[in-house]
Design a protein that fits this description.
alpha/beta, Rossmann fold, 15 strands
């Protein structure tokens, strides 16, 4: 490949490729909320330190705050996220802040917003607000004439089911162009998730075995050792299936299961991910185990008779040429034994057992393991003979990559991309709707949530879900070193 062609190839997959239509203002709806405090302000500070934020930042909320209060809130957020190590960048960020207080259903709020934006011609609107307000705010922006050359960034969840997702897509498309709608799933901004795409298609040795002929099962675990942290009211409206499985873990499945894109660029990646969702069988009640940690009903904002799941395990089937017959097991939950995210791809045993201690009788089969958090790692497990005359061995892990920490956090990466108009790490409309179609049947038709002890790995019924073909691999509670 000539140098010019090589440069074009890199640019095709470079989510930071320059865009002449970079947003010239960032408007944050819900700027006084928890999401802005925990994630957005630290991301803006990091962007300011890198020189990636030199436009007005307008905060909008229902609170009757002053600009001084907003600056205090931003400073407190950044301090709690870590030390302030660049006072110049912080001062520059605080100087760029503006504030508009008002009701999202009041046209006067959007009139005031128009004045605050001033001469900015290409604003980016970030909706860090409850999903019920997405529609009213988008319509308010349209009615106020604030959408010409603008783009909108919508926080998850994008809908509560297929019908509401379609309705929200219709509202968004009635005001914004398709390529101006950015649906955030912050999981896609994580370095370890981006590595899945790179690892699969940058290496030729994986492709021959990455199919139903050699893979026995795939399991994905996203565990948290903490509860809802005072967000009981939100969790009552979402639950684990909507909050984590339908978006975060489905995106991981798509990256693992997709076919090679037909061309370079994230458009091809999006197309292949949609095909994975479309090939998934809709879930039935017996494909899922729901759990609720003991003590959840005592959380503020939680109903005394709540049946909302804080744990969810499910069995997926992908009806494609590559994956037909391979079960995919997904689970996530709160108040589990540890906080970690891991993928285990179990390989089938050799067709003939030449050695008595070979898997599965001798333990877990060969596998590929991706540790996503708290430290990233990629490893193969293979059996190695012990020294001596007997043909006896042990299974060892061979590390291909040990944890690499990116100094760019997901929200910084995604907001920077959205400001630049780069949609590579965002979710497309047809992917959102196809994913909702898979989980739709069990949103209303499911078995009751089963109580489980805090600090456990969820209800034992989840073991029966996977038992016919495998057993759960619980992520280690150490730093992810070889095992």
């Amino acid at each position: 490949m000539q140098e010019g062609a090589a440069a074009q190839a890199v640019k095709a997959f470079d989510h930071k490729a320059a865009n002449p239509k970079t947003a010239d203002a960032l408007v944050i709806f819900g700027v006084t909320g928890d999401l802005a405090h925990k994630m957005v302000f630290p991301a803006l500070y990091a962007m300011a330190k890198r020189g990636n934020l030199s436009v007005p930042v307008v905060g909008v909320a229902g609170s009757k705050w002053t600009l001084a209060q907003l600056r205090e809130r931003a400073t407190d957020s950044i301090k709690q996220a870590g030390a302030i190590d660049d006072q110049v960048a912080l001062d520059r960020l605080l100087a760029q802040l503006r504030y508009v207080g008002g009701d999202y259903n009041d046209p006067a709020t959007f009139k005031a917003l128009k004045q605050a934006i001033g001469k900015s011609a290409r604003p980016a609107y970030y909706l860090a607000i409850p999903p019920a307000l997405f529609g009213p705010v988008i319509k308010g922006l349209g009615a106020a004439g604030l959408v010409d050359q603008a783009r909108v960034i919508v926080e998850k969840p994008f809908g509560r089911d297929l019908a509401s997702a379609r309705e929200l897509n219709d509202v968004a498309r009635s005001v914004f162009a398709d390529d101006s709608i950015f649906r955030i799933d912050h999981y896609l901004g994580k370095e370890a998730i981006m590595n899945l795409l790179y690892f699969r298609f940058a290496n030729s040795f994986l492709e021959p075995i990455w199919n139903r002929n050699y893979i026995a099962s795939v399991q994905i675990t996203l565990a948290e050792d903490f509860g809802v942290k005072g967000r009981g009211a939100f969790y009552e409206s979402a639950g684990c299936l909507r909050d984590v499985i339908q978006n975060h873990l489905f995106q991981v499945v798509a990256l693992l299961a997709m076919e090679p894109p037909a061309y370079q660029g994230f458009g091809g990646v999006h197309t292949e991910k949609v095909k994975v969702f479309q090939a998934m069988s809709p879930l039935g009640p017996d494909d899922m185990v729901r759990g609720q940690y003991i003590g959840y009903r005592s959380e503020p904002g939680v109903a005394q008779d709540s049946d909302v799941e804080t744990f969810c395990a499910l069995r997926l089937q992908i009806n494609s040429w590559r994956w037909a017959g391979v079960p995919w097991y997904l689970r996530s939950g709160k108040c589990l034994a540890t906080t970690a995210a891991e993928i285990l791809v179990e390989l089938k045993p050799p067709p003939q057992r030449l050695f008595d201690d070979a898997a599965p009788l001798g333990g877990r089969p060969n596998y590929v393991r991706f540790r996503l958090s708290p430290h990233s790692a990629t490893a193969f497990a293979a059996r190695v003979k012990r020294a001596g005359q007997n043909f006896i061995g042990d299974q060892r892990e061979f590390y291909l990559q040990e944890g690499q920490k990116s100094d760019e956090r997901p929200y910084e990466r995604l907001l920077t991309d959205a400001m630049a108009g780069n949609g590579g790490l965002f979710t497309r409309e047809d992917a959102v709707e196809a994913a909702w179609a898979v989980v739709g049947p069990v949103l209303t038709n499911c078995h009751p949530a089963i109580p489980y002890e805090q600090g456990s790995w969820g209800p034992q019924e989840a073991d029966a879900l996977i038992a016919p073909t495998s057993q759960w691999c619980n992520p280690d509670t150490d730093d992810g070193s070889p095992r």
